[in-house]
Amino acid sequence: MSRPERWIRLRGKPRGPRAFRRDLAETAPGLGAGDLTALLAADGDEILGWGLYHPSSQVAWRELRRGPEPPDEEWVRAAARAAAERRRRSPEIDERLCRVVHAEGDDLPALVVDRYGDLLAVELFSTAALPLARLALPELHEALGTRHHRLALDAAAARAEGEAAWVETSPGCPELVQVEEDGIRFEIDLRRGHKTGFFLDQRENRARLRRQVAAVEEAEVLDVCCYSGGFALAAAAAGAAAVTAVDLDEEALAMARRNANLNRSRSIRFVQADAFGYLRTLAANGRSFDFVVLDPPKFVPSRRERERGLARYHDLNKLALPLVRPGGLLLTCSCSGLLSALEFQERVRQAARRAGRTARLERLTGAGPDHPVRLDFPEGAYLKALWLRIT
Ligand SMILES: C[S@@+](CC[C@H](N)C(=O)[O-])C[C@H]1O[C@@H](n2cnc3c(N)ncnc32)[C@H](O)[C@@H]1O
Fold first, then answer.
1. Which one, of 109, 149, 105, 104, lies nearest residue 127 by Cα?
2. Among this protein's residues, is 226 annotated catalytic?
């Protein structure tokens, strides 16, 4: 078989649908951002797959199609249609409020698409994925009957690739959309919001917390890193007596307050503070809660920041554990894809030991089925939620 014009060669064995720069032995000259490039085996010219290359990203190559056949535009369109169809067929997914494309999990690497009613919020994790988005969007609109989209390059990805972050919208695309999750109304602020605007990945966990809170009389709940109020509103809807919701970001809190007003939730107290300092203050004041939720941002965004991030998970959990009443529940989450569930669990175990509390794992959950994970890409299961009974 003759070697294609654009190729890169692996150093060792293939490992899932990505090749990092350090995994490459050789690259063809002149490869540019987004070039459709063949991945060659370490020995010989066997084509293992075709993917998108980026010259300055640490993820040098992202697989589109496995094997020797290159994907064409119709292949990409078909992948987008298949992703939409999987959501439409699932009895567990709310078709109007779900993740429609989950990057590698839907064979469309570095591309995430969330649906909020008539609108698709698109996030690119590499500029290499822009041509995919351009091909996928018309297919998704057609398949789902959606009208608007907002396309943005993730700020961290932009920095890593030496680009400026940018946003592009369909004509007349609204900046605010209202959605309903589990009977709770949320206004999503696409301009000021984080990521695509709303954390759809916690949908099932919010519903589960709601059921748990409903089973406890006069429950007191603490939602740490509350963003637009997801867990706090779920707890209030379950009839919690008092909910305290804290976030560092004033704009996120403004969204959360608006959402509380939309739902006429009167039991939530919002606090703008750094979680670490605020948890210390609560402990100093002798406060305790039946439920504590920790949903911090990604503390391990890269391999380089692993130890620092692990220490932050440890410290946050160590500060939260003393605030949980005996028999109460700590829902502690990590959205760091580079950390396995076991590694996260181990840090929380150490935190519980340091805090002098016993933590029993009742359940380990993640995102819902609209966030499918390829087994050869376990990083796709980035969200880990430990449901811990504390004594
Ligand atoms: C993953 S989001 C939480 C999503 C939320 N639980 C939901 O259901 O929508 C993480 C939040 O942590 C907040 N945050 C980041 N660092 C923080 C800190 N040091 N203290 C408090 N909040 C922080 C961010 O502003 C962001 O709103």
1. 109
2. no
